[in-house]
Amino acid sequence: MSTDDKNRAIAAAILPLVGGVENIDSVAHCMTRLRLGLRDRSLVQDEALKALPSVMGVVEDDTYQIVLGPGTVARVTPEFEALVAAAPQPQPSAGGLAAQGAAIRAARKAKNQTPFKLFLRKIANIFVPLIPALIGCGIIAGLNGLLVNLGWLPGVTPALAAMASGFMALIAVFVGFNTAKEFGGTPILGGAVAAIIVFPGVAKIDAFGQTLSPGQGGVLGALGAAVLAVYVEKWCRRRVPEALDVLVTPTLTVLVSGLVTIFGLMFVAGEVSTAIGDFANWLLAHAGAGAGLVLGGLFLPLVMLGLHQALIPIHTTLIEQQGFTVLLPILAMAGAGQVGAAVAVYFKLPRNGSIRRTIKSALPAGFLGVGEPLIYGVSLPLGRPFITACVGGAFGGGFVGLFNMLGDKVGSTAIGPSGWALFPLLDGNRGLGETIAIYAGGLLVGYAVGFVATYFWGFSSELLEEFDVDTDEATGTAADPATTPTPTPATGPGPAPAQEPVKV
Q1: How many CA atoms lie within 13 A of 396 on its CB side?
Q2: How far is CA 112 from CA 123, 416, 494, 496, in A?
Q3: Does an H or E element contain 26, and which?
Q4: Which residues are the active-site residues?
Q5: Taking the model in full, what pTM does it have?
């Protein structure tokens, strides 16, 4: 079967299990998940979906999210959209069905929503589309650095440097474009205003007693400039006569927000960006082990609550300033703790074929930094292993943070990948070999501590009695349904999944 046929088959298998075409309201995807807006949640066959070999798990939030993994989701989504578009569209009688669907969608969106979480989601929607370019350019930058250090291919390395640096030189424009789009403005106007920040000519302008520098304020300045442009544009749309709108609105939008950007936002955002970089460096230089312990230990709960999205602009700012973010390798240790915990669960439940099969199928993705199948399929439902996975992440983060205290910065040139997938993106202030060794050491500590903590403290006697039961390896059902409890999420420490997590 060709790759296209395989992806089409996955989409075709998913569609009837989510209620068919009539139940699909919207289709989108992020780094790892197919996100579906559903008209009637009750039509979804959750267990049948989870049983599909290509499905790593499901998460319910404002949309119904099917975890397919990076790469796969980007290929399956167009096939799914094609199936939906090709099917005959339902013709509802009267307006009852539409009204019912609208009520369901409104109730779903209102559930567990706060202004802060909605704001973080907007921020994530601005930066997540940039991740593929950050990854590609980051890997090319790493390859170029290796060739330069070895003295190989001197005629090729300038071209690689241009490929790696071109996107980062203009990242403010892309941020401005996405920001305007996300906040309801005209994307190209957001990009136009943000482009002022990277225009070389700003070096001739003085503001706040200093000469501006191209790129000053970076992505934070672009974010603020584009949001301002959206508000100016909306103000103009309401007040400018329709006959003059096409001329006056874009002109005033660029003029007003551009002047504020040049004579205010660039300076302010530049100071904030510098403060973020200085604080991150100071924190890891003076309290690296403790900071790493806290960051590595709390990242999984932050992911579960969706609060990790607040870190995306910080990562991007650090990459723009220093060439790498020192926070991501520490946060990636949460995934190592998760892997160690899952292996311990595998050995602690030798008779539970269903959970062991889930672990075996999800571990390869876990090693590569895709932790969702292990989180939602293993540790979070069991409860305690989620906490012990966090302990493993804490010790791994503390290990990497300790070396930051000793002067060995370990950073990532892009955001998104984690686990073993982060190795090609590693960078630091020392040799590449030393940077790789420190990161690998952190992973090993995370694996080991996550395993030990889970094996010895991750299970109460009641939990073992409930889950260490004989199961049918073929079906994953209990051998004696009358006496064997069905695994359900344990009451305890694991919060309900919320936003799209950074892969851990």
Answers
A1: 40
A2: 18, 26, 16, 10
A3: strand 24-29
A4: 30
A5: 0.76
